[in-house]
Design goal:
Length: 425
């Protein structure tokens, strides 16, 4: 059972009541408009908050406190959803039914999370410098680690150029230079602004009754001085000029990425059909790209397509020998043309639908997957439940897939080839 409750203006709670699990979960997400000037700070804030509170001044004390709460855990959240970016915590805690002597693990854990959110140590009008500098190092390392995965790097480079005029081109963790420039004072000022202005999305999965969860969370936010400012709606994708980008590095394998655009997003009636179309085209091992470009023609070592439904972007990514680039490009476009002409076998259509439906049926298997799915759907503006989503996928026809394929247009490409000195494969 799902119930949505408005706790305060701009603070919304969703409760998914389910008694199957020994572990409950709660996500607390402040929602921001994705903006280049603050993306790095939004990603950094939850990690800094997790470094210590005024009553638990270091990681050791925080760990001991969580151990006392029957092994609860608190993790940083920084997610992208269309034009939005979130920042906050994901909390996992034992269900009250399994606690000793009738203890309320929920209430005790939320009391500690409240300290993490609001009772942090400060110095000279900012967060503690050691906390900030330590987490900046970690975030910069995470950004730079993308260089070690050339597929991820190639995708990022294509999106940065293809979506240069859109929020989707902004890296979720910011750029290295953005992170390096953050000061403790700037970060705290920004966090106070987030607390004051931002919508807050709360999502709980567990056996507790909705009104009990609502009462606990109302108490958590009761003393916040808010000036809530609603976010603008998601906007259509704003594409930059078409580009065919080439970059050289010392790599053993080329990385080809081809970026396509579609007007179909997760807020459109054809969303499910577009998902199936992507599945037929390149979404899994039964797809045209995998079976033909990789298996039959041996043009690549790996290939697949991904549909970024919040903004209407489909990316094809392939690992290839350098001299196979022209042929691989041509064959990828040929497979898309086959989809447009309706040359889709019953097996291809059924396999694509079954893969998507199987994943949706697995949503209900864990608290974290329930939270992740529903949170993404709500933030993305779709609001589809897994059951409604499955029914929509089951209803997709070959004609629906053909129509979606015809609306998918090549925009830009990126090719990472050998011969440079910026990294290794």
């Amino acid at each position: 059972m799902t119930e949505r409750i408005e706790l305060y203006p701009g603070i919304r709670l969703t409760v998914f009541t389910d008694s199957r699990f020994k572990q409950n979960c709660l996500s607390i997400q402040y929602v921001r408009k994705m903006d280049r000037s603050e993306a790095a700070m939004n990603a950094l804030i939850p990690s800094v908050l997790l470094r210590g509170t005024n009553s638990a001044m270091d990681l050791r004390q925080i760990t001991l406190r969580l151990d006392e709460l029957y092994g609860a855990s608190v993790s940083p959240i920084s997610r992208r959803a269309g034009d939005y970016q979130t920042t906050g915590f994901y909390v996992s805690m034992m269900d009250d039914r399994f606690a000793l002597d009738g203890e309320s693990v929920l209430e005790q854990t939320l009391s500690f999370v409240k300290d993490l959110l609001f009772d942090y140590p400060t110095e000279n009008g900012g967060f503690l410098p050691d906390f900030v500098e330590g987490e900046k190092v970690n975030q910069i390392a995470a950004i730079q680690a993308e260089l070690n995965d050339k597929r991820v790097y190639a995708v990022r480079q294509l999106l940065k150029n293809m979506c240069r005029e859109d929020s989707f081109g902004i890296p979720r963790m910011g750029e290295v230079s953005d992170v390096a420039a953050i000061t403790p004072q700037e970060l705290l000022d920004h966090y106070l602004r987030i607390r004051r202005e931002s919508p807050v999305q709360l999502y709980y999965v567990g056996s507790a009754q909705p009104q009990k969860v609502a009462r606990c969370l109302r108490e958590m936010f009761a003393r916040e001085r808010r000036d809530y400012r609603p976010l603008p709606d998601h906007t259509p994708l704003k594409l930059s000029g078409k580009q065919d980008i080439r970059e050289r590095m010392e790599v053993a394998q080329g990385k080809l990425c081809m970026g396509f655009s579609t007007p179909v997003t997760n807020r459109d009636r054809d969303f499910a059909a577009m998902q199936v179309m992507n599945g037929v085209f390149g979404g899994d091992v039964t797809s045209k790209l995998f079976q033909n470009v990789r298996e039959k023609q041996s043009l690549c070592y790996s290939i697949g397509s991904g549909y970024y439904s919040a903004k209407g972007v489909v990316l094809v990514s392939a690992g290839i020998d350098f001299d196979q680039e022209p042929h691989t490009r041509e064959e990828i476009l040929r497979q898309l043309e086959l989809c447009r002409r309706g040359e889709i076998s019953d097996t291809e259509l059924l396999s694509a639908k079954e893969a998507l439906i199987s994943a949706l049926r697995g949503v209900y298997d864990t608290p974290s997957s329930i939270e992740s799915y529903d949170s993404a759907m709500e933030l993305g503006g779709s609001g589809l439940t897994p059951d409604a989503h499955i029914r929509a996928l089951e209803a997709v026809t070959r004609e629906d897939v053909v129509n979606c394929a015809k609306r998918l247009l090549l925009h830009s490409t990126y090719f990472l080839e050998g011969g440079g000195s910026h990294g290794a494969d």
